[in-house]
Amino acid sequence: LCSNNNPYASFGATLARDEEQNLWSTPHDVTHTEADDDRVLYNMIVVRNQLDKDSEEWQKLNYDIYTLRQTRKEVRSRWKHILEDLGFQKEADSLLSVTKLSIISDSQNMSKARDILLKLSEETNIFPTSWELSERYLFVVDRLIALDAADEFFKMASAVYPKRPGGDRADEGPRP
Which of 24, 110, 28, 33 is nearest to 75 (CA)? Predict the structure, then answer.
């Protein structure tokens, strides 16, 4: 067969391209650059791809991209862990899935969702200390409010990821 007639000829290249553009966690989601934090990561990738791979700048930027992605995965994993502990084992992934098609369930919940998200940021270590609040989690908190589980989520986050003096998590040693 000629590769032009083979619909699977570029399959590996497509997967690699999708993974490179996978700014969050959902392959083939074209809405990544809609949120500010996605735009920052996307811009880092664009700049890195314009640099020579042997350069020190490319290596530094590549490390920063990797670190940001790992941090995002860790935060998502923390949220998923708490959701599963609250009994949302089957729903955890869908509760955490946010795209530009996601909507706030009730506009009256918006200020409550912001307050809870801010409280989570200030009073727990569910987010790393350097983390800028992501709009993505505002949608997740809104969903928790609609399910009447936001307060329980906060209590669980406080227990599992308590804020400690100096910003250390209970399961981490002191940071240098």
Answer: 24
